[in-house]
Design brief:
mainly alpha
Amino acid sequence: MSDEEPTVESLRERLEAIEEQLEAAETEADLDDVADEIDALEADVEAADLPEPDDEDETPAAEELADEIESVTGDLEDARGPYAEDIVTSIEDAVDAIESGEWTDTGEEQVHEAVESYLDAGDEYVDAPSSSGDDLDSAAEALDDVAAGVEKADLDPDEDADAIAALVEATDALDEDLDAAEEWDDLSVRQQLDSQGYYDVLEHRKDFPPEWGALKVYEKRGEAEPILLALDTFDSDFMEEHAMDALERMGPEEALDEMLARAEKRDKHAIRVLGTIGSEEPVDTLLEYVDADVGLQKVTFQALGKIGSEDAVQPLADQLVADDAEVRSAAARALGLIGDTRAIDPLAKVLDDDESGSVRASAAWALVQIGTDDALAEASEYADDREYLVQAEAEKARDETTA
């Protein structure tokens, strides 16, 4: 290299020579030499005192050269490889796709066919299993074995270029086959349900939509799993509402986890279903909504009442003095459903001095539901109350007392 200060022309001539050297490169060693030349040129461009343009809108020569060098560097990277490690990475991606895919039965068969084809193609170059096995786990393991075989073969990018190219081509074909294999998301809702036998209970499909007809059959049979399957598949608000209604009427234990997950997102219908199921598992979640908005409070109180957990008694009793009359009434009725005697005194206080007739009627009803002598005695004192509903509950309490 000359000791003269480099010019724009001399630097560009070197860049052109590097481009020619890159085009002629045949081995990784040749490409390494090109990389060294690029690094040297880049350093000289950065160190050179190149003239600035007279026109401020014109791009400085140093920037132009830097952009051109960056472009050649990109061409160099494109010219490298492929390498054995690229094949291993692609195989690992294929394994991830197989393990994470939600395949239909047809899709599973297609996955096996894709892996079998890949094993046949790769067997010429590396150690590969003879079969993809009987399930998807076995297919994934077979691919892992191929990846291990590629690593073990220690393929050289120059000496084994043909083998690497063939394996890359086979791996690309594997990726395309897996992309084309059928997953549940590829099917319409009706196809998904049909493939899982959802409609098998129908002798005919006179109800429209047929999903509704099958839903009614499963509810009549008390079979929750198909309804939960449909609920997870439906993309119709209409059908989802009917599925939730069916589950609310049935109250199946099988729906607990799904309804709890929905309840954690403040789904009121799911909370109603949890009340019907009656398990105490959701109680902690429901208690978080005791101080929520009025609509959520009312449905939560009802669910807590149906569940009957003693843990809900005090939080509900605290709501007997809430500002909203509907909340106070709902809290009183929930306490009546639970039937815990600790609620007698606060309910009696509501019955004595709440300004809302409907709230007082709910308190009287709750005391009758609790049904102990003390509870009935408190309620029976209001047989001459100004509110008819309170009178009616007081008379029930008297009848229970004298029975």
